[in-house]
Amino acid sequence: MNIRHLNHLLSLIEEIKVIGKNTEVDGVICHVMGVVRYGRELRLLVLQYDEVFHQSNEEEETELDYEDIPDNNRAILCARLRNDARSPFQWTRSVCIGTEKFESQSSETKRLSVQDFECVLLLSEFLRKGWKPEGIDYQSIDKLFLTSMELVGDYSEIPAFGDNPPIRFNIGPCSTANLVEQPVDLTINGEYPEKIWFSNSKTGEKHWVQINRVYLLDMWEEIEKTFSNPEIKEKMAPEEFDKAKANIIRNFSQICPRGMYLPVIEYECEEGISLNFYTERYLDSKPARGNSATATGFICRPDKPFGVLGLQLKACIIEEPVPADTRCIKAELFQYNSIITAGDILLE
Fold first, then answer.
1. Which of the pair, 52 or 308, is modelled with greater confidence?
2. Domains of the chain by residue range
3. Lowest mean pLDDT among 59-68, 139-148, 306-315
4. What is the value of pTM for the model shown?
5. Quick one: three-class SS letters along the chain?
6. What is the pLDDT of residues 22-33, one digit of tens each?
């Protein structure tokens, strides 16, 4: 960091319009700072403080002072689910500021730090414009999160909103991950006559799943089918095709060696819910070097649209290879993901 770079960061900020409105969404204190123009791009800025998130972090840090730090995949995945800060504006589709309406197609949320000079300079510029961050001005900077929303359009100046304009955020459907950790025995090509009930480990809320079948998928066969498709070959130059195929084969070999298979669970459950299964062996083992308990994210579509209950059939791949003679898998229904439709957020 040098003075020239600081001057460059300042030069990017061409115009600022302070708004300064507070609200609280699901326990998260939110403060709409205002709008900043970078060239011909507008961004709406919202500061957030999540007391529950910080209390949870502090409690966990205290526990780790007295206990051994777990280093298996289960601990890493659980920590991610439990310690994610909430961002009420992450799924904003549009914003009305006064009489002006803006579409928002992208946003980012990051934790502030006194070492992040770009954010510190931005806060300083807002303060110079008369910004009064009431309600969060006493919080440590490194406990605040900043959401920056791009307002779609090409702007030579920030529109005139007037003084103290009302603001309405139109929030789209959002996905939340919920911890379960329920053991389940999966029998390859077995029968599952009854629903399995499971609970949200935090709230106790109950849900169900009807497993239709569990089978082993030969991903290498699927890869060969894909690259044998003449339509794919026609869309790529021969050199590009060969390079793409070689890269996929090399990368997939590290995930699932030839001769091994990936388990697939086809199931029905409530609308707006999807499930994640892991093997107990994977959850209780240490993460492989270079891997921090991340999933590759394979997508598998069932052959049939509907299951035995007449509901949409869904599928989940367990991303741990098993041999062809596998008959039973000790697994866990580890988490469920639910789609929530949020209401508008209005600041008058």
1. 308
2. 3-172, 175-218+260-340, 219-258
3. 59-68
4. 0.71
5. CCHHHHHHHHHHCCEEEEEEEEEEECCEEEEEEEEEEECCEEEEEEEEEEHHHHHHHHHHHHHHHHCCCCCCHHHHHHHHHHCCCCCCCCCEEEEEECCEEEECCEEEEEECCCCCHHHHHHHHHHHHCCCCCCCCCCCCHHHCEEEEEEECCCCCCCCCCCCCCCEEEEECCEEEEEEEEEEEEEECCCCCCCCEEEECCCCCCEEEEEEEEEEEECHHHHHHHHHCCHHHHHCCCHHHHHHHHHHHHHHHHHHCCCCEEEEEEEEEECCCEEEEEEEHHHHCCCCCCCCCCCCCCCCCCCCCCECCCCCECEEEECCCCEECCCCEEEEEEEEEEEEECCCCEEEC
6. 999 888 899 999
